[in-house]
Amino acid sequence: MREKKLGPLLLSGLMTGPILGSGIILLPPMIHQTAGDYAIFAWLLMLGIGFLFAWIFARLSVEYPNDAGIAYAAEKAFGSRVKKLAVFYFIMAASFGPAAVLMTAGEYIHSLAAGTAFPAELYGFIFFIFCMVVLCFNLSFVGMVALIFSTAAALILFGSSAASVPYFREGPLVDGTFQFADFGRGLLLLFWALVGWEIVGNYSMEVKNRGKTIPRAVVISSLTVTLIYVATAAAVQWIDPGFFANGQLKLAMMLTPLIGSFALPVIAVLTAVLCMCAYFQVTGGAARLVASQAGGLFARRSRGNQPMAALGLMFFIHTVVFVCLMFHFLNVETLVLIANAFFICNSLCGLAAAYKLLSSRVYKIGCLFLMGCFSLLLLFSSPWILLFIMLTSALFVVNFRQLIIWKKVKRPFKSY
Question: How many domains would you assign to the chain?
């Protein structure tokens, strides 16, 4: 059976929905509350950084295609040790982040179904089972599902943003004093809007005509994501609550002029759709990474080219995480903080590899700029998360070195 390959539209669909993900629901009101009216400038700055970030990884994926994505580029640049460290960072991020994303959807459905006895964790777990079933199909089918979902969400959000313009507040659009600390914290929170661009490399082997498809898909996705994020953030920032019933969410206000009383149910559905798209991308990319690195059973694929054993491993890990959530050993905020920090570490590995491998001076300058930005963001993480990263990284490196020593000790005995 001929293997189906992704074109620009399907690949952009596989990227756009996940990159919007839960961020388009959570971030606009959160950033406005943090940075005030200067939030719109934080959005423009971070989305500009995101476009540069996406373009660098698109070029890296074209020149060094592999299911391992960033890890493969890291090996080409620095050897197997850095590659395995990049793999470790991504798997750790993919072990915590996707569950947090689906829990966001679960919490919105739980609020919509107020009065029922079912907790948000149960709704999140139901979404989890559904997503795992979808991931067992051919990737082109998953890309088509993500494309349909993300297109519908983008049209509704953009249409609602445009329809809410007559309800904007009067007076200056930017009011209040600029607070550098609040603005910086807003930028830190906005890193969640960048997570996803670096995963394009994990799908590079399943793309037709990589040299054209990947850059086109990144341009389509970048323009779409920027337009939707800026329009939604502007509407949330400048809409006047006086036009609407007290107690409504800002996003519900934004959707009300276009959708009316169905605003809250539509937000819940949009959240579920975008969060599932994010789960498809991150978990699918992580499974391909495991399949490319682990070998043996995990390297086996279905007729639809799906790494079923690796998906089974991700299913087990996420089930454990959901059990921890149900028994309140973990919460969503903790999951996001841990995943975000490991995503930054993984991105730094990729940017360092891109700096060494890409010959263009423009790309090298871009890599240095982004590494400086991301290192600063990482330093703003809480101390205990930084400690967790250092400890797990140290344990990983120590175990890896022990494995090398063990192989060297055993090798002479094999020669007799």
Answer: 1
